[in-house]
Specification:
single chain, about 475 residues, alpha+beta, about 15% strand, globular
Length: about 475
């Protein structure tokens, strides 16, 4: 096992070394060069390379190794380490090296390597699924396939995504917008602001704001619509979002700022997200089916802790209702997103307590219950993350922006994947697995509340609300 991990960590180290050399010689990754059709060609070549490596895996042991746990665990560990650096440093699109990790070659190469491992794993599972039918195997296949599709298409499709802002004045028509680089772009539509509507709380903070607009398309169609936060409008492949307004005038604003987004790869990304949701559901069913009625009593502590969590929620509910909710939080996604995460944190918290108890014993007992709790927790965490991604797309036009909160969520999620992969090794060490679980829970705490104290998240995270 040590030799296998040594090889896996050596591959990761080599990728980081190559990445540093590329960063030093050619500069950061220029994602703009991957616009269509370049990204389509790259995607096709990548898929062909995975298929060729899978076909040659018996002739080339290295290809077989890449699809193993001994390759996946070090790759995930490198991803966690680099993403932690990202979470601790202030990121900027104009930054360099560690301050722009999305264009930092070592970061990109490690994630490409993970996608390669995923691709080989998927082909192996597809072949196995033809002879073995089980909810566990199908959970893994759906989960890995969804993750592969989401990562690859979101990354390659980023170059084709267009995000522009259009500033509208009351009663005037506008057909141009500003890109992120400050350039003027002619839009395939003309928009007129007919009315700006704003509702406020007693302290005059915004409760709801929206723009009543008239859209004129190139086909001379006139479409009336109301755009507000969490309720975008779709027109000819574009989504129109309510972005801002004249904050000095407040409810009397005669100006509205809309954001227009075109994302041609979105259907593929959504396919990956829905496959992951299906995989998470099968993971939950698989964990439930392992229990006989006689073992239900063992789960009573979970029910007790869940009850305690929801009692706390009820106790604080009255104080939360008395405060103002910003428009972005007034979404149907808010309740399921939060509740699902509550279940995830509770299951993972209980698994951590059991891990601590096992560490104090001279000889750890079976970790089967801990494994099931982690499976429950990871399933709920996955659903919570994906609900958040779908919500973010409706609220801000992007499903994942590597906001500091999202960054630490990815770190936590990957760390629990490392635990699950490690536990599946026949020669794993139980005490090391328990210690790894404690590290995972510490990262979860950073994601949950520790993020509020990080300098890298101050004034940059869209997840810091004043409720």
């Amino acid at each position: 096992m040590k030799d296998g991990f040594a090889k896996g960590f050596l591959i990761g180290a080599a990728l980081i070394f190559v990445g540093l050399a590329l960063e030093w010689s050619v500069g950061p990754v220029a994602w703009s060069r991957f616009a269509w059709p370049v990204n389509g060609v790259v995607f096709a070549v990548f898929l062909a390379m995975i298929a060729a490596m899978f076909r040659l895996r018996r002739r080339v042991p290295f290809f077989s190794f890449i699809g193993s746990h001994h390759a996946a665990i070090p790759a995930l560990a490198y991803a966690v380490a680099l993403t932690v650096v990202m979470g601790l440093t202030r990121q900027s699109a104009d930054g360099s090296w560690l301050h722009n990790m999305l264009s930092f070659w070592p970061f990109v190469l490690i994630y490409v390597y993970i996608a390669l491992i995923l691709g080989l794993t998927i082909l192996r599972q597809i072949k196995a699924a033809a002879t073995i039918f089980s909810s566990t195997s199908h959970f893994s296949l759906l989960f890995h396939l969804g993750l592969f599709i989401a990562i690859t298409t979101a990354t390659l499709g980023h170059a084709d995504m267009e995000r522009v802002k259009m500033i509208l004045s009351l009663g005037q028509r506008e057909s141009t917008a500003l890109t992120r680089d400050g350039f003027v772009r002619q839009m395939p539509m003309t928009i007129e602001l007919k009315r700006f509507v704003m509702e406020t709380y007693d302290d005059y903070s915004p409760k709801r704001y929206a723009s009543e607009i008239l859209i004129l398309t190139k086909k001379n169609e006139e479409l009336g619509a109301t755009v507000e936060v969490n309720k975008p409008v779709s027109v000819n492949g574009w989504k129109i979002y309510q972005n801002s307004y004249d904050t000095r005038m407040g409810a009397k604003s005669r100006m509205s700022i809309l954001e227009l987004v075109r994302d041609p790869w979105l259907p593929l990304v959504y396919t990956g997200i829905y496959l992951m949701l299906g995989g998470a559901f099968l993971l939950f069913l698989s964990a439930v089916r392992r229990h006989s009625p006689s073992k239900i009593k063992r789960w009573l502590p979970i029910l007790a802790i869940l009850a305690l969590v929801f009692v706390v929620i009820v106790l604080f509910k009255s104080s939360m209702q008395s405060k103002t909710l910003v428009p972005a939080l007034q979404s149907p996604w808010f309740a399921p997103h939060v509740v699902v995460y509550m279940f995830a944190y509770t299951a993972l918290g209980l698994a951590t307590l059991m891990a601590l108890w096992q560490l104090f014993r001279k000889t750890p007992a079976s970790l089967a219950t801990i494994d099931r709790l982690v499976s429950f927790g990871l399933a709920f965490m996955t659903v919570g993350m994906l609900f958040g991604a779908l919500w973010a797309k409706e609220a801000w036009g992007h499903y994942w922006s590597w906001d500091p909160k999202e960054t630490w969520a990815a770190i936590t999620w990957f760390s629990y994947l490392i635990f699950i992969h490690y536990r599946r090794l026949p020669s794993h060490r139980p005490r090391l697995a328990l210690c790894l679980l404690l590290v995972c829970f510490a990262l979860l705490q950073m994601c949950w509340w520790g993020i509020n104290y990080l300098p890298s998240a101050q004034a940059t995270s869209i997840h810091t609300y004043q409720l």
